[in-house]
């Protein structure tokens, strides 16, 4: 199927899951994960109405930002790990960053965000499964990270992101997500601008939407499994 057909199918699946779990219509946004995919695929998705795209690799993200600058309302999200020496490129080009988990990176992104641009939207990455191999802070560190980010002038905290360990059932996955959702709701009570819970990919979209996700990150189901270079 084409990119446009795949997008239509994924959107239909999101609508069906919103209905299944009594979520408000259009409360879950779709982030198309376009890492390693060619410009032509992104342009096809854009033509089909997709505006939000997620990239994992800094140089690739910067190159795509430059080559597709004529698409004025495209919205670039950085969803990969951030190295200190690459933070400036991210701060200068991206609209969102999903992977804040270190004070140093938060400070650098704020310092390096161009003053003529709106503040950079950021999400704190939480390691909800406690995996040593995964990035993210622990939930008990969340309050300190929130306080830090809210003091920085050129980044704006929008919510939380997580990539949990795979579970054997939907019910188990929902159980893993529960503490994160509780933390997200607690943050919303403190700050009305907190509005984004970025959880859920192709393999756990149902559990994520059941658990309050407001943004799902989908790549393969839209662009296919084969890796490309742009």
Describe, in plain words, how this protein is organized in 3D.
It is built from 9 helices and 8 strands. The chain is 41% helix and 17% strand. Strand 4, helix 5 and strand 5 (120-125) form a beta-alpha-beta unit. Helix 4 crosses helix 5 (103-112). Strands 7-6-5-4-3-2-1-8 form an 8-stranded parallel sheet. It has one domain: Alanine racemase (TIM Barrel), CATH 3.20.20.10. It is globular, with a radius of gyration of 17 Å. The model has no long low-confidence stretch (mean pLDDT 95). The two termini are 21 Å apart. The chain is of the alpha/beta class. GO terms for molecular function: pyridoxal phosphate binding. Residues 7-226 form the Alanine racemase N-terminal domain. It comes from Marinomonas gallaica. The modification N6-(pyridoxal phosphate)lysine is found at residue 35. Belongs to the pyridoxal phosphate-binding protein YggS/PROSC family.
- Backbone CA Rg: 17 Å
What is the percentage of strand-forming residues?
15-25%
What string, H for helix and E for strand, traces the elements in order? Answer: HEHEHEHEHEHEHEHEH
CATH topology: TIM Barrel
Helical content class? 40-55%
- Uncertain segments are none
Structural class: alpha/beta
Shape: globular
Number of domains: 1
Q: Output the CATH class name.
A: Alpha Beta
Discrete helix count: 9
Span from first to last CA?
21 Å
CATH homologous superfamily caption:
Alanine racemase
Instruction: Tell me the CATH architecture.
Output: Alpha-Beta Barrel
Number of strands: 8
Which sequence of strands runs across the widest sheet?
A: 7-6-5-4-3-2-1-8
**Average pLDDT value?**
95
GO molecular function: pyridoxal phosphate binding
Pfam families: Ala_racemase_N
InterPro entries: Ala_racemase_N, PLP-binding_barrel, PyrdxlP_homeostasis
Cofactor: pyridoxal 5'-phosphate
């Amino acid at each position: 199927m084409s990119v446009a057909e795949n997008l239509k199918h994924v959107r239909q699946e999101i609508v069906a899951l919103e209905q299944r779990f009594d979520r408000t219509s259009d409360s879950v946004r779709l982030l198309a994960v376009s890492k390693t995919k060619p410009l032509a695929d992104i342009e096809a998705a854009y033509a089909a109405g997709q505006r939000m795209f997620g990239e994992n690799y800094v140089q690739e993200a910067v190159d795509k930002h430059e080559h597709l600058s004529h698409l004025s309302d495209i919205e670039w999200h950085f969803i990969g790990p951030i190295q200190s020496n690459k933070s400036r490129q991210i701060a200068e080009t991206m609209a969102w960053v999903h992977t804040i988990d270190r004070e140093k990176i938060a400070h650098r992104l704020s310092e390096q965000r161009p003053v003529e641009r709106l503040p950079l939207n950021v999400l704190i990455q939480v390691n909800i499964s406690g995996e040593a191999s995964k990035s993210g802070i622990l939930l008990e560190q969340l309050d300190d990270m929130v306080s830090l980010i809210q003091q920085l002038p050129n980044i704006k905290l929008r919510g939380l992101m997580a990539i949990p360990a795979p579970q054997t059932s939907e019910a188990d996955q929902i159980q893993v997500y529960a503490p994160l959702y509780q933390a997200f709701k607690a943050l919303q009570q403190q700050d009305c601008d907190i509005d984004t819970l970025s959880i859920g990919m192709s393999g756990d979209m149902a559990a994520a939407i059941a658990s309050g996700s407001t943004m799902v990150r989908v790549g393969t189901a839209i662009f296919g499994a084969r890796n490309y270079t742009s």
